[in-house]
Amino acid sequence: MYDLILKNARIPQGDYTVLTNILVKDEKIAGFTDCIDGIEAKNTIDAHGHLTLPGCIDSHTHFMYQGFPHRENFLTGTAAAAAGGITTVIDMPCCSVPSVRSVDQLNLKKDLCAPQALVDFALWGGVTGEDVRENRLHNVQEQADAGVVAFKVYMTPSVPTYPRVTDPEMYECFKAVAKTGLPIGIHAENFAMCDFYVKKFREEGRMDGPAWAEARMELAEKVAIELGISFAEASGARLHIVHMSTGIGAKLVGEAKKRGLNVTSESCPHYLTLNYQESMTIHGANAKIAPPLRTKRDNEEQWEGIRNGSIDFIATDHAPYELESEKIKEGTTIWTAFPGIPGVETMVPVIVSEGYNKGRISLSKLVDILSTNAAKHYGLYPKKGALNIGSDADFTIIDLDKTWTIDPKKQASMCGYTPLEGMELKGKVVKTIVRGHLVYVDEDASVLSEMTDEDLKKLVHDYPEGVAEKYKEHFDLYPQLYSAEYENSYRKNHPEVIDQHIRSIRGIKVKPGFGKFVKRQSIQVLPRTITY
Predict the structure, then answer these.
(1) For the segment 31-60, what is each residue's pLDDT rounded down to a tens digit?
(2) Rounded to whole angstroms, what are the CA distances from 373 to 52, 194, 528?
(3) How high is the pLDDT of residue 97?
(4) Which of 7, 120, 148, 314 is deepest in the core (most CB within 10 A)?
(5) Spatial separation of the C-alpha atoms in residues 318 and 77, rounded to whole Å
């Protein structure tokens, strides 16, 4: 007997689809069949002929649970992922207290996040300029051995627990990561240029939203990418440009691929659909991110980068902030507001609507950039990112014809804002299945609505039993693992707002803790295929 039959699933076969029934056993895909007569299963889910993709992956999230729980926690973050058709997230090492730069810090994060997770998750490892200066680069190989999928480096400041690198420190990080065979992802903005022009524009009195994007100009990303490519060539490291915002960036990555270098890149839905002149004028700080939004020309050049292979896949850089204390607090300006927006809930539908449904990309490219390529790049394939027998039974089911409008007040993410607000889309996630279990359905009923005050206190507001004792050194260094931002936040003094929001989240069908940590399966490298 099978555990599940997913019937009437329209699955991609290259640029075409076929209607089939998918058999699931022990959380894996066990087979495909045209006829289910006589086949027994414990459960049946009807996909109603909707497009059924291998579970989509967001490989760049900042859920910020430990240290910054006023912004997002792992429960609300993975609920947003499920609602957006994401079956696996890969969370960044930087936005937590402490950050993840050692195996012990990695294990702490896993122990804190796992009880809240609703979808599966993998983790990035961390390395900073401080690790170079204090001779802690041995932590790189140790994290790789523990199963992280890649390493993150910031050329511009992040949070205090994750210092940026200078140029020579970055080169030392490249050499250390190169030995592991894993990718090194860089936030590609030249610090000196960004710092100089932000100060210059502020002194000149610019207070308009677009000033942020004009200060952190295209050239700052261009020269940062060029430096990263040079370091990759010299060190043999696998360079990955995270959240690449420019058209020139795509061209630089494409040229590096043609020269035989292992250079890859990701873009985000907002860099494909929004431009800074309009969005930052309308939404101000709620459209403030780093790198900033660019121009309509960059939008189109990035779509071309996806089509020709210069951009390998889509991620979100999901990094929401608290409106009350970090975005619109009285006295906050475009320069002092925190830079970050949500995205995990809207990534799949935006790319389906604006990419596939509008004919900008093919069906096979849609599958590559939402699922397969990230799984391969981060060593999770074919466990994730595939519709193969033996792969995890992860499915993203999409009604290609359903039209709807993005409304941040109805989303699972806790922040309540998005510069995509009001965007009309065609194509909506209707079901999300993780390891053969229905995690999300596009309906109002949700198991989260039934959580009591005591449930939420134990799960969200308190740490799991025994964690403080197990990681006493970290709790001694960072009392309660709290950040200064959390101490000054609105939600710290109003935890009931968090509880009310969690209970309002729609469509969740599994209990927190269902999601599992996914260790890297192997080291895999994407083929360097460029089509001009």
Answers:
(1) 999 999 999 999 999 999 999 999 999 999
(2) 17, 31, 12
(3) 97
(4) 314
(5) 9
